[in-house]
């Protein structure tokens, strides 16, 4: 095999290639992503890498039952800020 993909290239390729029809993201466990990452990078931690990419804004992580979902930034579902709703209900924010 030639040069290995960078972590970012690998993760983005996995999101596009492994997602099921009708879905915009992949589950890190059920899609096989975690195992594939470890095999490709000789046991490296997919958690550390995906967290770093998420902090850099290159991918979006959403916690779900049994793991996390990975999304490309343009495909991530919009989440509502529940903190704002709670503050409004408490009468602490307009």
DSSP, total strands: 3
CATH topology: Arc Repressor Mutant, subunit A
> Which band does the percent of strand residues land in?
5-15%
What CATH first level would be assigned? Mainly Alpha
Unreliably modeled segments: none
- One letter per element, helices H and strands E, the order comes to HEHHEEH
What is the overall pLDDT average?
A: 93
Nearest-angstrom radius of gyration? Answer: 16 Å
Q: Which term fits the overall shape?
A: elongated
Name of the CATH architecture: Orthogonal Bundle
Q: Based on helices, strands and strand pairing, what is the structural class?
A: alpha+beta
Number of H- or I-type helical stretches:
4
Q: How many domains, as an integer?
A: 1
Report strand order across the widest sheet: 1-3-2
Task: Give an account of the 3D structure.
By secondary structure, the chain is an alpha+beta fold. The protein has a single domain (7-89), classed as Arc Repressor Mutant, subunit A (Orthogonal Bundle), CATH 1.10.10. The chain is 40% helix and 14% strand. It contains four helices and three strands; from the N terminus they run αβααββα. The chain has helices at residues 7-18, 33-40, 46-55, 82-89; strands spanning 25-27, 60-64, 67-71. The radius of gyration is 16 Å and the shape is elongated.
